[in-house]
Every structure is written in C-alpha cells, then in structure tokens.
Amino acid sequence: MKPQRRPTAARMCLLLGLVMMAGARQSAPAAEPSSSGASTAVLSEQQIEQMLKGAATPSPTRGLRRQVTPEVPASISLNIPFEYNSFALKPEASEQLRQLSSALNSQSLRGDRFMVAGHTDAKGNPQSNKRLSLQRAESVQHFLVVHGVDAGRLDAVGYGSEQLLDPDQPGDSRNRRVEIRDLGAAH
Fold first, then answer.
1. Bridge partners (DSSP) listed for residue 156
2. CATH code, domain with 133
3. Cα–Cα distance, 176 to 174 (Å, whole number)
C-alpha cells in the first residue's frame, strides 16, 4: 500500500478556503430573514474540529530548511442566524453552537484559544455595522461560555464590513457571518 503524503500548509489553506466559500454559498443570510424557508445543514462537532485543526498541521520538510513565515490561522465560518438587525440569537442557532462548543472542548482543540469574529455586509452605517458585528460575536461567545467553553480561551471581535468575504459584491449576504479562528495554544 502506497503511503499517503500529508498536504502542505498552502494546500490545506486553499482547501479550507474552498470549503468555507462553498459553505458560505449554502448558508442563509445571518442578518436577514430567510425568504426561501430552506434550512441549512448543521456542521457536526467532528467536521468543525477537523476544519479547525486540519490547517494547523505542519508539513514534513524532508531535510530542507524551513523559512519561518506567519501561518494563516485555521478558521471556519458558520451559519449562526440572528434576529433581523439584532444580536439576539435565533432559536435555530443553538444546535450549531452546541456542536461548536463540543468541538472547542474536544481533546485536540481544548488547549487552544479562539477568536469569535463578527462580520457584516457593507450595507448601512459602517459604525453601526461594526458595533452590531461585535455584539453578535459577544452573543456567540456568551453561548459558548454558558455551554462549557472557558471564557479565557475566547476573544470576541467585530469587524463590521472591514473583511468582506466577497469584496466584489459588498452587499452580498455571504459577507454576513460569524467566523471562528484558532489562535493556537492557550498560555
């Protein structure tokens, strides 16, 4: 049997980006009520864990000297629905957030710190969007703490529309998201 090669960090980042983009295309808007009535699939604890720990795996160097470059933190954007123009979580957000809390407390991730990053589209007032994105990130952080994740491992940040997922379409619903970034080992 042929041994499997471990993917390089660059390949893992590319794959993670493609998976995140595909997931964002399938997710319902976070700030708008769903007009289609269709529900999106909830990612499992194992899927979340794999996406957050997978990109952080170092690749073998095969005797070559490795140049130290800043690593892109592993991250995942989840469908976390909120009430319209509010930071109140919708009831259907709880199942996805329970899976996230289980993943963050898993054996492979329990020693890491995480950023909970709120993002909006570019519609509306930039200051209001930034405040709303921070409040949404804090709502997710609060849910995770209530469900067993150590508060010292979580940092909430609101970016508003500063880091659009699709800058070519600043008003697109894919830009409204909550992103979980693995910041590495907790100190």
1. 116
2. 3.30.1330.60
3. 5
Q: What is the average per-residue pLDDT within 114-118?
A: 97
Buried b (16+ CB within 10 A) or exposed e, 18-33: ebbeebbeebbbbbee
For residue 63, is it within any domain? no
Assign 179 a pLDDT band (cuts: 50, 70, 90).
very high
Domain count, the chain: 1
Contact 174, 116 (CB under 8 A): no
CA separation for the pair 174, 165 (Å, rounded): 7
Q: Which residues of 59-76 are buried (b: 16+ CB within 10 A; e: fewer)?
A: eeeeeeeeeeeeeebbbb
Domain containing 131 equals 73-187
Between CA 26 and CA 45 the distance in angstroms is 19
How far apart CA 176 and CA 132 sit, in angstroms, is: 11
Rounded to two decimals, the pTM is 0.70
Nearest to 20 by CA among 161, 162, 117: 117
Residue 18's identity, in one-letter code, is L
Predicted confidence (pLDDT) per residue in 48-93, tens digit: 999 998 644 444 444 444 444 446 678 999 879 988 889 999 999 9
| Least confident stretch, 30-34, 60-64, 179-183 | 30-34
